[in-house]
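_Backbone structure tokens_
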Amino acid sequence: MPRILTIEDDAETAQEIIAELRGRGCAVDWVTTAREGLIKAVGDSYDLITLDRMLPDRDGLAVVTTMREVGVHTPVLMISALSDVDERVRGLRAGGDDYLTKPFAPDEMSARVEVLLRRRSPAYHVTVLRVDDLELDLIARTARRGEITLELLPTEFKLLEVMMRHSGQVLTRMMLFETVWGFHFDPGTNVVNVHMSRLRKKVDPPGKTPLIRTVRGSGYILEAGAC
């Protein structure tokens, strides 16, 4: 059972986070101040921390910076009402691993938590990813579908890597855009759709069982035997 520390001073937001995470099978501890959060983060062992950017006694940026300085490498999902690209970049540069803006959908938060938790698992550090007869070699930078060598552009390679690392999981366009391109998602952009279309033509050639499919209204999923 993953152990998660939630540092959030707003009770309503905290209860929303806690209810969602506990519903997903996580054990959650909750504190309301930066001081309490640092004491718990340093003195206890957690799989992930959700951190409010605006705390009553200290800025969340200072909290995550202090954590990194004292050797706490627990993944941190920063949650903030500050949605400007510059603020998101500041949060990531301070040591945060992901940045979620308020208001947020509980499912989106859970998906981001799942991604961060998977990064801590030994499987995340493998160098060859496989789903069905699709193989991605992260060292040689090669991709194959059975006996077919896939000629992927760098962005297509990264996009496929993200999807294979999270095979069987629906990934939203926002998650894919921010993970692959590293920018704040613009709902009006179609860059994910365009690249996904090109990638699917290479990964799912005629005669092969499709591995990538669109989940209407949600995003995309890569899984064995997709149709």
